[in-house]
Amino acid sequence: FNKNQNPIEAFISNFIRQAKNPTLFGFFKLPADRYDAIAPAMADLIQDTESNGEMLKPYEVDMKSVAQTQEQAPAQEQTPAEVQQKPEVKPQPEQDNTQSRTEATTTATKATPVDPDRIDWTTIEQQWGVKRETLEQSGALQSMLYNHKSPKLFTVTPQFGDEKFTLDARLSFKEQPDGSFTLAPHFIKNEPRLDVPFRGYEFSKEDKEQLLKTGNLGTVVELADPKTGEMKKCLVSVDRLTNEIEAMPVDKIFIKNHIGKTELSMKEIGILKDGGVVHGKEIELNNGRKFTSDLQYNADKRDVEFVRTQSLKQEQSGEKQQQQQRNSWVDADGNPKRITKWKDTRFNEQQIADYMAGKKIEMVNVTDKQGQTCTVFLQFNKEKQRPVTEYHYAENKKVVGVAEESKTQYAVNNQGKTNEATKNITDPLHKGQTAPKNEQQQAQQRKPKGPKV
Questions:
Q1: Among 280, 312, 94, residue whose Cα is nearest residue 213
Q2: What tens digit of pLDDT does each residue of 23-41 get?
Q3: Whether 247 contacts 223, CB under 8 Å
Q4: I need a surface site. Which of 132, 237, 318, 339 has the fewest CB within 10 A?
């Protein structure tokens, strides 16, 4: 309301109008660790929701699902009478327990893959800068179609308003209300958030120690379904690349009865579905390699894994060191990383796109190390896995690379090399120069080798 209105009247009239038409309200959620950077840009986008609807959709809260959850939640609560009437459950013998796990194992089926034609590739490329071809060439698409995350981190480039962000994330697909699928990035967190409840479950001290040690909780716990609020038995693990906490309902776990050429018994599969460890299993892979390893189910990978000997922190520290040792010019798949400038020259969007595509970028009126004006061509070299440059001077515009007569000039002025005939000259060399050009430079070059006797 404005300053000329009666505040109470304005509030009541606004309240009644909004109560009659609550669909005017919209709720959006943002990742907490990126709130400071994203929230100001989103505030601008919300001013025009029709034009910016596609960009806002991944962050919109589906109020219908929330309402359904609230309606269903009270029905799940038990009255004291119902609790008292509930018959006492007596523990079963170990043999019966194994049998129940075996029966549960047979009920789970392998997930149905996502139809690639139902994926909104155009919107994904516009919102996140991720292309279908990139996922196919890296081999990540096949895993993602089975509702898994991408095995590796990918660089996404979301744009909010006029600002574009470059972030690393694992990727998965998320189904939309209309049956199509969009991209769901999983951004890197500094550490797992184990001090706050996860879907209604509070981690004990022992739980935290176990998750930090192996990445797997190792036991079944009851968690609230994020869509329905229903309590379900789940296994919990930590994503070792992003530190995101992941859960998998036990009734949806599918475990194959073999690893490579090694068969798993129904009892072993039952132990794995309960979060336990199968110790000292002799494994033979399809390539003939044999070894002994402990096995455990990982809720993030949605598959059985070989139990790690390093703690989660040690493993992440090693991964971080490996990433630092990798070539900083390329991503994990060997593709050129996005760069926005070279030295003091900033690129426009077309130049960035050309560089990413392996084309040459032309930068005019650049000053080299010796103060000489030149044109520089920058291009990503696949063999060297880094950008390379070519210096072109005004009188040599038509020359590709460095002309023969200018090689000495280029080597001395830009590469820090020494030419014996001009090594004592302090001025930059000019085109074709391989010796002193005047008396002053000749005097500089003729330096006495020692004191006169």
A1: 312
A2: 556 777 877 766 666 776 6
A3: yes
A4: 318
Tens-place pLDDT, residues 319-333: 555 544 445 677 766
Residue 197: phi, psi to the nearest 5? -60, 140
* Start-to-end CA span in the chain (Å): 97
Helix/strand number for the chain, H first, E second: 15, 18
**CB contact set of 191 (below 8 Å; sequence gap of 6+):** 243
Q: What is the pLDDT of residues 273-322, one digit of tens each?
A: 999 999 999 999 888 888 899 999 999 999 999 886 555 555 555 555 55
Give exposure, 293-330, as e/b (b: 16+ Cβ within 10 Å).
bebbbbbbbbebbebbeeebeeebeeeeeeeeeeeeee
In single-letter form, the type of residue at position 190 comes to N
Count of other CB atoms within 10 angstroms of residue 285: 12
The predicted model scores a pTM of: 0.47
**DSSP assigned state of 195:** S
Report long-range pairs for 159-164 (Cβ below 8 Å, ≥24 apart).
159/55, 159/127, 160/38, 160/41, 160/42, 160/44, 160/45, 160/55, 161/41, 161/44, 161/45, 163/41
Beta strands in 359-403 (DSSP E): 361-367, 373-381, 386-393
Cβ neighbors of 453 (< 8 A, separation 6 or more) are: none
Q: Which of 231, 248, 230 is nearest to 239 (CA)?
A: 248
